[in-house]
Automatic annotation (TrEMBL):
UniProt KW keywords: Signal
Taxonomy of the source species: Bacteria, Pseudomonadati, Bacteroidota, Flavobacteriia, Flavobacteriales
Signal sequence, start to end: 1-18
Protein name: DUF4294 domain-containing protein
A Pfam family per the record: DUF4294
Source organism superkingdom: Bacteria
Length: 239
């Protein structure tokens, strides 16, 4: 294959140079030897140097640079337990993902508008309005979440905002309120201070793998993380 490609490239280059010489010889305009050599070199350079070719089914095809796409393959299970664990985690992740996206969008809108409000009292008043809106929008739905789903949501909130749920509550309300929220959550084995690190925590890697597979298949609305995730590093470690 490489030998055929090399021969074809030589033929293409030789053909281009021959065409240039033929056109110059038959031209009515007289050209000096030095000018002729310069024009030949330029034409040959334009026709081959900036192009790359490959052979597919005995056809010479010009290559085209495309954006890099990382395709996530199916998870390779080592046991029935791993498969069951993955499928359960996938179901729960799909369930809470819309809440994580919606919450991060609301917080982004809040911060953008707060940056435009100079008055401290008006900023406080607007924060209160958004806070009540978010609580009214999410409270009833969040009550239906299981303990595992609640913890996954906390991790995804960190993925989408770069901030722990504890700090989000602290900013919207107060440190004391956030402390009690965290204490209450801890009774149900949920930590609002939980972060998201697929490179270090296996469950986080599984969640990230589930997200990327579902983004790839258009089964979940894709949203880029607010934190840096080295997914290749995570794949090398856990698979």
């Amino acid at each position: 294959m490489k030998k055929n490609l090399f021969i074809l490239l030589i033929l293409v280059t030789g053909f281009a140079q021959a065409q240039v010489r033929h056109q110059l010889v038959n031209s009515k305009t007289s050209v000096k030897p030095k000018e002729l050599k310069k024009e030949q070199d330029t034409s040959a350079l334009d026709s081959t140097e900036h192009k790359q070719f490959m052979v597919i089914d005995d056809k010479v095809m010009e290559t085209i640079d495309l954006d890099e796409v990382f395709l996530v393959g199916p998870y390779k299970f080592k046991s029935r337990y791993e498969r069951r664990r993955y499928l359960i985690l996938q179901k729960k992740t799909r369930h809470v993902w819309p809440y994580a996206v919606m919450a991060s969008e609301r917080l982004t809108e809040l911060n953008e508008r707060l940056n435009k409000i100079e008055s401290k009292s008006k900023r406080k008043k607007y924060t209160k309005i958004v806070q009540n809106y978010i609580e009214d929008e999410f409270t009833e739905e969040l009550k239906k979440l299981t303990k595992t789903e609640g913890q996954i949501l906390v991790k995804l909130m960190y993925r989408q905002t770069g901030t722990t749920t504890f700090d989000i509550v602290k900013d919207l309300k107060s440190g004391w309120r956030a402390f009690w929220y965290n204490t209450t959550a801890s009774l149900f084995n949920i930590s609002l201070k939980e972060e998201f690190h697929p490179e270090e925590v296996e469950e986080d890697y599984l969640i990230e793998h589930i997200l990327r597979r579902n983004f790839q298949k258009d089964q979940l609305n894709k949203q880029e993380p607010a934190i840096e995730i080295d997914f290749l590093k995570a794949v090398e470690k856990w698979q």
